[in-house]
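SAMPLE LOG
Freezer: B-3
Tube label: C17
Construct: single chain, 379 aa
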Amino acid sequence: MSSSNTPTHLVINTTYANENYIHNLIYHSKNGIRNAKPYFASILIYVSFAMVYLTYLDQLSMINLRRYATSLLPEMTIILPTLFFICAVLSAIRRGKHRRTYALKKLFSSRSVSNFLVGLFVLTAFVVFLSMFTAMKGTFGHIFGFDHDSWQADLDKLLFLGVDPWRFLFLPIHSLELQSIIEVNYNVVWHVQLFSVLAIVAYSGLRTKTSIRYLLCTLFVWSIIGSLFASMFLSAGPAFYGLVTGDELRFGEQMALLAEYENGHASLYQAYLWNAYITKSSGIGTGIAAFPSLHVSFVVLHTLFAFEINKKLGFFALAYALFVWFSSVYLAWHYAIDGIAGGILVVIIYYVVRKVTPEKKANSSHPRPNRAPGQRMMA
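STRUCTURE (predicted):
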């Protein structure tokens, strides 16, 4: 049928529907950005401080930003959204005909598309934040020095009845097979769960205070625990204990056994970090700071939010958090107190943020967008 034979009322309704779709898309996108204002403001403050700090040290460079933009950013804004989209399509296909049609329409609705656009802004800002975090962390060893390893290792020993914790958590059970499993979890699975959860929240539309609380808690874990406390009590950890204290014996046996695993990622990455430190170079994930443990901090954060969903998921997350804490000592990345301190600080951050952002529908006072006559708006 030619366009000249198309009924006038169908042309009008189609035009109105297109205009309404764009109107709703803009509305939902603005609403998502508005809800995330505390998140963007926090990033702006941190990045501004980092730029002043690095400029003062004459170490401000865009190298880190370019590296993260070409590595992490595509993963967060292309690969993960594509996987989410494929999962959503497959889930829709498995449904009955009518439910399938509704699910596919919802997938391409103005709200779903706006969720994706808002997520792009949120995650792009996070990549900028993380590049500045890494650049600052890389300077800590040269500015503050690793002066806290001895007392932190001694406190560890005191808490474990006069014995260094690795002798409890490593020696009795060590094997190359166990080490390979722990390394895969610590170096791969942990990063996947960290960035996947962040991406899921970012692409959720940010319509509830829970999602905003999670984003804020994530930033505060990086900035307060990973920057502030790390710089105040800077330590290198058991892997570098001999290098920063001169005592090669205390953790020497553990390091020698770990080095027997030829494919061990921990030993290779520790060498990478130390080389970056002594050459004063910066790269993805560089910077040495053991106290407090960010690995443990984030799994504790996820545990707290998991309990908000249901207890079974919460206890599963708690078990995983304990496994990560054990792994951090096993692989000589951390003293036991690094994970304990990180967990305590995360609980404080979580409850403070929860106190100042009571749960309710975000921006519920704003009017809902217009609908076309007789048109059902897709959420």
